[in-house]
Specification:
The structure is a single chain. The radius of gyration is 19 Å and the shape is globular. The chain has a single domain, classed as TIM Barrel, CATH 3.20.20. Strand 5, helix 6 and strand 6 form a beta-alpha-beta unit. The chain has an 8-stranded parallel β-barrel, surrounded by 8 helices. With 297 residues, it is of the alpha/beta class. Helix content is 42%, strand content 16%.
């Protein structure tokens, strides 16, 4: 099983130096991928702009968006941006896509919240695929380029927690971009089994199975209280959810403990058949990358 690391894009007070240090440290280490996700109504870096920087700062690790919401973008422009990202990272791009969980993001960019459906996402993915194939979808004098380095376009993973989306996406996605809120390994294995079954029924190759979860390390948490760090992060990040619900989730969310204890969790996830786990930090302390590199390596 491969292990990727997510950039701390949802943490406060980020700057260029911090993002570049994290990116280069991940690329220089044993990590399989560098990941980052999209939000609009938040102070995280804009995802497609960051994609260009990460492509320029790296040479080895895959670059993964976890996830982009196609309905927040014009699909032709999004296809062009992602093809450019694939060009800049020399064919190392994986695109996670999902419908998103925040209506405020749709409204902020003038997108119709009524399109926040698997059908709305599928329609836009189809247009993106046609653009990447070189089809004329605009009636212009030339097709929309550049061509992605990866034939047919970047690998596409669908972000979901449920079986309905898996069945719908099995016709076009290359795999799963999962997320575990509470590290329930039984539910994780059930989702993996559901993906395998959906892809098999659709006559598709075995899907790539990835998942992710938040982590907080005792070794780097201020005051040594990793669970408190997790709580602080979730209070800020999950600001669209009632506070009492976030507080309840924070007691069981993700992983809080030592690097050695995390190794045991990763071994258990590997046994479930995951192809890759992407760790999501709850602080911007770059020491986490070095501490965990030892167990990843």
């Amino acid at each position: 099983m491969q292990i990727g690391m997510t950039l701390p894009v949802m943490e406060p007070a980020l700057d260029r130096a911090m993002l570049e240090r994290w990116t280069r440290d991940i690329d220089d280490g044993p990590w399989s991928s560098i990941c980052f996700g999209e939000r609009i109504c938040f102070d995280n870096p804009e995802t497609l702009t960051l994609l260009g920087a990460v492509g320029a700062w790296t040479r080895r690790a895959r670059v993964v968006t976890t996830v982009v919401v196609p309905q927040l973008h014009d699909p032709v422009r999004l296809a062009k941006s992602l093809a450019t990202g694939d060009l800049l990272c020399d064919g190392r791009l994986t695109v996670g896509v999902g419908v998103g969980g925040r209506t405020e993001d749709y409204r902020a960019v003038g997108a119709d919240p009524g399109t926040r459906t698997i059908a709305g996402m599928t329609q836009r993915v189809e247009i993106m695929r046609r653009v990447w194939a070189g089809e004329d979808v605009t009636g212009g004098r030339l097709p929309v380029g550049p061509s992605p380095v990866q034939p047919g376009g970047p690998e596409l993973l669908v972000g979901t927690l449920g079986p309905k989306t898996l069945r719908a996406a099995s016709a076009w996605a290359d795999g799963l971009a999962g997320m575990s809120l509470d590290l329930d390994l039984g539910q994780m294995a059930k989702l993996f089994d559901g993906a395998r079954a959906a892809w098999s029924e659709a006559g598709r190759p075995t899907p790539r199975l990835t998942t992710s979860f938040w982590f907080a390390l005792t070794e780097t948490a201020e005051g040594g209280d990793a669970r408190a760090q997790m709580h602080t992060h979730l209070r800020r990040y999950m600001n669209w959810i009632p506070t009492d619900a976030v507080d309840a989730l924070a007691t069981v969310a993700g992983f809080a403990g030592t690097a050695d204890e995390l190794r045991e969790v990763l071994d258990a996830i590997a046994a479930s058949g995951a192809d890759e786990v992407q760790l999501v930090p709850t602080s911007s302390d770059p020491r986490q990358v070095a501490l965990l590199a030892d167990i990843v390596g």
